[in-house]
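Structure tokens please, single chain.
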Amino acid sequence: MSSQLQKSKLCFIGGGNMAGAIIGGLVTKGIDKQNVSVSEPWDVNREKMAATGVHTTASNVEASQEADLLVLAVKPQVTKGVCQELAGAWAERTSLPLIVSIAAGITLASLKEWFKLADGRTPHIIRVMPNTPALLAEGASGLFASDDVSQAEKDLTESLLASVSKVTEWVNREELIDVVTGLSGSGPAYFFAVVEHLIESGISLGLTREQATRLAKQTCFGAGKMLVESSDEPAQLRRNVTSPKGTTEAALKNFEASGLKEAVDKAVKAATNRGKELGETLAKS
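Here you go.
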């Protein structure tokens, strides 16, 4: 953890699963809990956050008053109202917090508009698309920054996300955040679906549900670990396990004949396009 992050006043607007994962990671790495404030309307979530030792409140304004970095972790549908509430409360502030938004689909243009103060000032903003393995500190995140964001602010954000993400990738065009959404943001569900179908296939061929589940889960975990830890490309790892005229080759030929490549491509594009559509819809709300 960077010394700058350790010294910064951190605010989380929203105390759901993703915010909770980041806070848990920061606490584990030794963040000063007195520097962390969380605003969360739901009692159950607020109590979970309080149990970690950080300051909690139901007031967004109270949580944000001294923040150097604010993580916007609310549902997209309420983001506009939250941003406008905060902007209205910051008129007396001489400096504004860095905004790190994990609100899915909300564009920089919308965030800039909603966060604009009466005197015309707007905070620096970074959009982040994390994914659910962040709950186990195994996340992958895509990031895009507005033009006014400094390198120091980018470094601070990377240090923040390091508590939950093993991979942080900056993209140079905002529309690529939608591609990150389609690839890694929604990606865990693709793997879950494949494992789900592997289990059902094993059962249909005679294995018990428990046996098929254990074998499929561990196969996915082991293959994932090989992907991360091996210096070989995925294609080479596939070739390594594919003997000519063997069982794996038979399965892969069936995948190819069934249009696996096209199906994956269409799925990622569908998720990417849906992310773009959501952003456009929310901008008009």
